[in-house]
## 1
Amino acid sequence: MNKSIIHDAIVLCLITLIAGVALGGVHELTAEPIAIAHEKAANETYREVFPDAVNFRTDEEIAAKLEAAAGDIAAQGFGTVEEVKTALDASDNVIGYIVNATGKGYGGPVQISCGISSEGKLTGLGFLSISETPGLGMRANTPEFRSQFPGKSAAEKLELVKSGEAGEHGVQAISGASITSGAVTNALNAAVYFVNQIM
Amino acid sequence: MNRYTERLYNGIWKENPLFVLLLGTCPTLAVTTSATNGFGMGLAATAVLVFSNIIISLMRNIIPGKVRLPAEIVVVASLVTVCDMLMEAFTPGLYKSLGIFIPLIVVNCIILGRAEAFALKNDPVVSAFDGIGMGLGFTVALVAIGAFREILGAGSIFGIQIMPAAFTPISIFILAPGAFLVYAMLTALQNKLKMPCATNGDPPKGGDRSACNGNCMSCSAFRQE
């Protein structure tokens, strides 16, 4: 009896050990390609939301400011700002910022990436991660919804507009998905707040 | 039908994991919000099912009977994680559409069910066919439920609008309660028509022991020690 328990325990332990080593090996093998794939995907999104920019760079000074202002941004009740990159043109001049921000959606956090030009205009909006209800909240990630952002003013807070014309300071909500629309607007407002008040 | 094609027929029709065995209900309710999602989840589960069946079958003489469940779970969970990492690293495009389903496969009891009921007692090749059959059966069922919910809840199928503009989508069908409604209606229908299904009450007398007759103790899949 006791002997069989020990035998079973050893076998199970060996199986677990081998599985663990295999997992570690695969992780070693895939860590780098995964990081590259992530960066590539993020860069594609950046290019989409800031079509005029040629290159994007992480600025340490901005990163430090962002870290210091995290509490301030959270206190506004919009959302959080995770990352800010400078958008550069062909001759390395800063022509605006890429801001990655998150708002609370219906199916979890909605992470957006938006471009804000030095003139204070939105250049575009894309999604880094979104897991809303298909057919409802997921319609945020369609050209119909996203195409309203380029050209909007980023000088002040944006309002969610549920009916009628959205105008320069408004975001046209998706019908039936006000929580998702609110998440996008909040994330956008966190980004706008950071660029206007803290930078 | 030889023993390999018999496995395919068995998985897709006779013992369809979702409709007949009622396995894997949890991820089913979560992902069948659209036909496309069902298809993605089905394919991802099929891949894992085939490999887990092969590996469990190869190890069937090593795994001690008393600790077979933890041993199987370790193998399945590791396999799912490996799949997840490999897909993310080398097929980012595929990962983007299927990636969210991969972690859900760990909690998919079809994988464990087939390891336990079939792969532990059969050779690797036929176990692989069992995995393909069960996986395809799961895919077909998921697409069917997903399409039904999508048509009612969003007026479309595979993302293509098919209902006329006058049709107002019944949004509840693509939300969580809709999943329960559809699954409950399906099971009720099977019950009413006395179709083979794990939820149907009395087993037929002296009946077919290989298909699901509602009597788990007499099931061919039940492991006799």
Note: DSSP finds nine helices and two strands in chain B.
## 2
Amino acid sequence: MADSMTSTPPRAPAPPAASATGRRRGLYGRNLRALSLVTAALVTLTLLGVFFWAPNDAYLGFLQKIFYVHVPLAIVTLCGFIAGGVMAIAHLRTRDPRWDMRSYVAIHISLVFGVAVLITGSIWAKGAWGHWWVWDEPTLVSFLLIMLLYATYQPMRFAIEDPERQARAASVFAITAGVFVPINFAIVRLSTAYVHPRTLDNISGNLPGRMQVVFWLALLSVTLLWVTLWRYEMASKHATAQLRRLRRLLAGDESEAPPRRSAAPSVTTSPGGVG
Amino acid sequence: MPPLPLHTAGPYVAAAYIVFLALILLYVAIMAGKLSRVEREVDELTELAQRLHDEREEP
Amino acid sequence: MSAPAPRTRTVVAALLRKELHVELRTWESVPAMTLFSVTAYVLFHFGLQQDSLGGPLASGVLWVTLLFASILAVNRLFVADDEQGGFDAFLLSPADRGALLLGKALSLLAYLVAFELVAVPAFGLLLLRTSLGAALPGLLAPLALGDLGVAAIGTLVGALAVRTRARDLIGPLLSLPLLVPVVICAARATAPLFMSPAGGLPLRWMLTLGLYDLVFAVIAFALFDFLVED
């Protein structure tokens, strides 16, 4: 799975040197603590709601509680992939490498969330049908396909050495895949509905009162969680890039940062960083 | 499909939520690693800057 | 007509002629695809332990085989341009880049049609339980739509993959998920044709496939420029 500890293909670009006065300090770390606290509070509230407030589903019993984590994760993952595509469009239009970085992080985080969707979905399938995998669930099947597609994102990036070309290819990929996400969802759903009645979506479609509230709360929490993790990763990448720039300024162009635990090729930096 | 009794469904629900929790904690761990690396580099670069500063001060 | 830039139609025609000329000379793609599909049929015969297939099973085997064979052509599509400076030559010319996309996509389409002229009858001969002749008129539309989808997505992915270091891996890994909906729609569409008694062609799958082709043709057209520039 995508490992954010290794040297990442896209360099976080330093803010343009010319507009030093216009640059805001701590670009991504601002308000991060407040955001994290709000997210933590919401997640806690959601968990309380799920286990102490929402009633047990008459038809599915206690097992239905999995929906509150599985479905919001699924929705947020899909939106995250689409967001990555939108950011990629911004990158191709403005040629600003920052958009490429944003797109990369969005896709990366959605990938991790997507793995969680597949695992929780599988747990649900085992509980409900006795099998760890079922083809009846259009959500699970679409997700398998989407994850197979996005799993090639990072290997593809690593396989292109020129950083600008890499960013452009990645953006083309992100846009194509982003368009693919909703279409694939629709087609798989169409093909499954033809044979099997829709199960998961039937249930989460018409939720009575309290369950609805908790569901929307869960959706909000997971969305905020995604945004928080995105900001964390952006801040981290930005800081690392600034450190690299600082090192170059202090020690000259030949100085190399201590080698990182990674077999992936590191992108050689040029003086001044990517502007 | 009749609802599973609590003692059968319980472990599954717990497993699903634990996966969710594990995801968050995994991120915390990854961020911790990055933070310590950043801290190390800042130390190195401060040392370097100090050295350059001292060299400049020398007569 | 003394326009500064050549008309797109002329460029596309010239490109297509060049591609077909090269293919006729080197025989890179079409024979390989044909051979691959026939071998695949043999494999399926042994793997599935069936002498003949009908209905959805036949439909599935046919389309999966066609899909995998197409990947071979997609992989080779831009290799010559990349290795021999064809990209640079094209970029230096005043021609519109969309023409390159169109030319390549049309040539890929031509290869697909060419190899299917052998692969589909071979399927009818080797594996199909019902008569291919009866199914053939109905087959033409799904084949055409499927080929269009493969051509659009294959050209885009081919251009994307050719500049990477692991182009033979990236190509299939990217195209196959993107082409799954094509298989879904095409296989469902043709399954009734292979049943006895044969059913009619379901319109909804054809429509879906057509829409899918349209969407990705537009996407390919919009994004291709970004892959070719340097």
Note: The helical segments of chain B are 6-57.
